[in-house]
Write a structure and sequence with these properties.
468 residues; mainly alpha; two-stranded antiparallel sheet; 20 helices
């Protein structure tokens, strides 16, 4: 298609329109919307709507928003619901167990409606990314270093303790997540560059950092940090070893998805008794080893239905708003802007967690007496604000802003490597999964400030050299 034709973006919305036209045929509508997300992935990668950046090979630019961010964000948002749907129609894995007599057509209608919203959000996200995807980015500086692995190791080693220290200081705590995230990404890339540059000392030091990150991820109580550790290492090793390592990391990730539900479930249960985190971790690993295959499959299926997929919670939000709870309109966005203000300047600032959880309680997603935190996903907050229009506006804006930040990072830091692969991936990792408005806006704002501070330091140190 002609790349200057503005109507080319309409192709992204065909799956949504087809699912909407068949919305009374619940199963057909769901399947059209679900496969529609696969079609959007295809359209965004085949160049029909807009050509992919040609300044690097595809495997050398995976950290750009159109690739890894879209795959994680949209894949998690749109594609994971298939397990919930399969369970609803009576299957468990590939075995037919029969319909539950508690289920009615209302559930299939709700599943189809939420998947319709998901595919609309996916189309809007990609639309926003492609609108701002103008490569190559104009570079104002070039990176000037003798050894890339030395720079990355130094960045990782410096950011880690500073981030930890800032986390203990209330006025600087907003920099903690950004600096520790950057330290993790820089350290992981340093490991791959130590291999590339054949620096043995750097390799062992970077490997120790990586293993330390993995061990910390195991005591986080969450699955995502563990999976991200492995995923990032695989992504950064691809340019060195080529596509032949993809099956290795693919199998490793599948294995993690299979055993992590049991590990995390046991870890949370054991750590809740007051046992030290390292002991809880070791006992949880032992529990996984001693679990039989049926137990692992049972835990994994529950994980795939209710935690890997968030459609069950989305259905509750859609059923409560606007039927029982009115749309929030601009209130959620206003609350998000307030979170940017440091508490040192406003000691009475509302507690963010409490503000977010109020929406959860209003929708009846969890009981007020429950200790569970069930923050709404980004697309949920978009829906709660303005319904379907809110989803389109919110996801389009999300994609456009993420792409703009990535371009800005490349312009300031001398190109894709330091700008996108290090700074964008390290500081703006929250964009991969999203979050509720309040947490997301606060993180993006302070991540951008952190990026500008690092840019100024790099200029002063001569690491960035101005292009005249």
């Amino acid at each position: 298609m002609n790349p200057t034709n503005p109507f080319r973006y309409a192709l992204l919305y065909i799956p949504f329109l087809l699912a909407w036209l068949t919305s009374e045929q619940f199963h057909a509508s769901y399947l059209i919307a679900w496969f529609g997300s696969l079609a959007i992935f295809y359209l965004s990668y085949n160049g029909w709507i807009k050509k992919l950046p040609e300044d690097y090979k595809v495997i050398e630019q995976l950290m750009r928003p159109i690739f890894l961010m879209q795959i994680i964000f949209a894949g998690y948002m749109c594609c994971t619901s298939i397990f919930y749907y399969i369970n609803a129609i009576g299957y468990k894995y590939f075995d037919y167990k029969g319909y539950s007599f508690f289920l009615t057509n209302d559930l299939y209608r709700d599943i189809a409606k939420c998947q319709l919203y998901y595919v609309l959000g996916h189309a809007a996200l990609v639309h926003g990314i492609l609108i701002n995807m103008n490569y190559p980015a104009k570079k104002f500086y070039r990176l000037y270093v003798v050894s890339t692995s030395n720079l990355l190791l130094g960045l990782s080693v410096i950011c880690l303790p500073i981030g930890y220290l800032f986390g203990k200081i209330g006025t600087l705590s907003q920099f903690n997540v950004q600096l520790t995230g950057l330290s993790f990404v820089a350290g992981t890339i340093a490991l791959t560059y130590a291999i590339k540059e054949k620096k043995i000392t750097n390799f062992w030091f970077a490997l120790a950092l990586f293993l330390s990150n993995v061990m910390n991820a195991l005591v986080s109580g969450f699955k995502e940090p563990i999976i991200i550790c492995v995923l990032l290492l695989g992504v950064f090793l691809i340019p060195i070893y080529g596509k032949k390592i993809i099956p290795v990391f693919g199998i490793l990730l599948i294995f993690l998805f299979f055993v992590l539900p049991t590990f995390i479930g046991n870890f949370r249960k054991i750590s809740g008794t007051g046992l030290a985190l390292t002991e809880a971790r070791d006992k949880s690993i032992e529990a996984v080893i001693n679990s039989d295959n049926d137990e692992l499959k049972e835990d994994n299926w529950d994980f795939l239905i209710y935690r890997f997929s968030e459609i069950d919670m989305f259905i509750k939000y859609v059923n409560s708003t606007p039927n029982y709870v009115p749309f929030y309109n601009t209130q959620i966005a206003k609350d998000a802007v307030v979170t940017i203000i440091p508490r040192v300047f406003w000691p009475e600032k509302p507690i963010v967690e409490s503000t977010v959880m109020q929406r959860v309680y209003n929708a009846g997603v969890v009981d007020r007496r429950s200790m569970v935190s069930a923050k709404p996903a980004y697309i949920v907050d978009c829906y709660l604000s303005f319904g379907m229009i809110g989803i389109w506006l919110g996801l389009f804006f999300y994609g456009a802003v993420a792409q703009w930040i990535a371009i800005k990072a490349e312009s300031l830091f001398g190109g894709y490597f330091m700008g996108c692969a290090v700074m964008f991936a390290g500081l703006f990792q929250i964009l991969w999964r999203g979050n509720s408005f309040e947490f997301l806006l606060n993180s993006i704002f302070w991540s951008f400030i952190t990026m500008l501070i690092i840019y100024i330091i790099f200029k002063k140190r001569g690491i960035l050299e101005e292009i005249l």
